[in-house]
Design goal:
- By secondary structure, the chain is of the alpha/beta class.
- The protein starts with a strand and ends with a strand.
- Helices cover 38% and strands 23% of the residues.
- Strand 7, helix 8 and strand 8 form a beta-alpha-beta unit.
- The protein is built from 10 helices and 9 strands.
- It folds into 2 domains: 180 residues, Rossmann fold; 68 residues, no CATH class.
- Helix 4 runs antiparallel to helix 5.
- The strands form 2 sheets. Strands 1-9-2-3-7-8 form a 6-stranded parallel β-sheet, with helices on both faces.
- It comes from Platanthera guangdongensis.
- This is AB hydrolase-1 domain-containing protein.
- Keywords: Hydrolase.
């Protein structure tokens, strides 16, 4: 009964082949998706975004209050509406990882060498193995001989996007939720991000305010999961998300987020 639209945001995957106008920000990525759903003439009933994508779906609501159907459910997976706080010592820091990848050759001979280099730099094996899923094999068009691997994303653009992700402030739309919009925040129990007490208090305050104004804000916690919620606890994530689809009429979901 449902259709799902899984997008490669600008500078990621196949979208990296499309030259997009700068700046590469949360706002511009959200506008890309809004323009896509308009061109496809679909009306999303559920918006799901993980990490950077969480801020993208919030920005979609902020930029397009009228075009979005009512009711619409928004899921922000392990991302806060405001400033992104760095992890503690010994945890993976995305900004530093992006800078390291920018210093690596654009073409590499093997995935394992990249994994080893990332781990040697101090990042976890799990993150290193996730990063190399964004390497695609290259072959000579005539002989078919392997030429190694190259990245499927635009690292310079992604660096700019991550800086925007760190600083983008979308508390305004959370604390003034349009009527008919239901926002759900999911915090991973072992998140790499710093969920400050201030963030949790503001979301809980927004819960009370939204209910008085005909909207909705709700906080969820996914147990036994780190930041990569879909890999760490997929069953638990599905159980929480499925509440948006039970008893619903046929609709369409836009799923946004950083993906290889």
């Amino acid at each position: 009964m449902w259709q799902f639209l899984l997008v490669d945001l600008r500078c990621h995957g196949d979208s990296a082949l499309i030259k997009k106008r700068e700046p590469h920000t949360v706002t511009s990525a959200a506008l890309d998706v809004l323009q896509l759903v308009r061109r496809l003439r679909i009306t999303p009933r559920v918006l799901v975004g993980h990490s950077f994508g969480g801020k993208v779906v919030l920005s979609m609501v902020e930029q397009a209050a009228k075009p979005l159907a009512r009711p619409v459910r928004v899921w922000v997976l392990d991302a806060t509406p405001g400033r992104v706080r760095p992890g503690a010592d010994g945890e993976d820091h995305p900004g530093e990882l992006i800078s390291f990848l920018q210093r690596m050759p654009k073409q590499v001979s093997s995935r394992q060498k990249v994994v080893s280099a990332i781990v040697q730099e101090g990042f976890s094996v799990d993150v290193a193995q996730w990063v190399v899923t964004s390497l695609k094999p290259m072959r000579n068009s005539k002989s078919g001989i392997s030429l190694g691997f190259s990245w499927v994303f635009d690292l310079n653009g992604i660096s700019e996007m991550y800086k925007s992700y760190e600083t983008a402030n979308l508390w305004g739309i959370v604390e003034n939720v349009p009527r008919g919009v239901h926002m759900n925040f999911l915090k991973a129990e072992r998140s790499l991000h710093r969920w400050a007490l201030e963030d949790l208090q503001r979301i809980h305050a927004a819960e009370e305010l939204a209910s008085d104004q005909g909207g909705g804000v709700k906080m969820h916690v996914l147990e036994d999961a780190g930041h990569w919620v879909h890999a760490d606890n997929p069953d638990g994530l599905f159980k929480i998300l499925s509440k948006s689809f039970k008893g619903a009429v046929a609709g369409k979901e836009v799923l946004g987020g950083l993906r290889p």
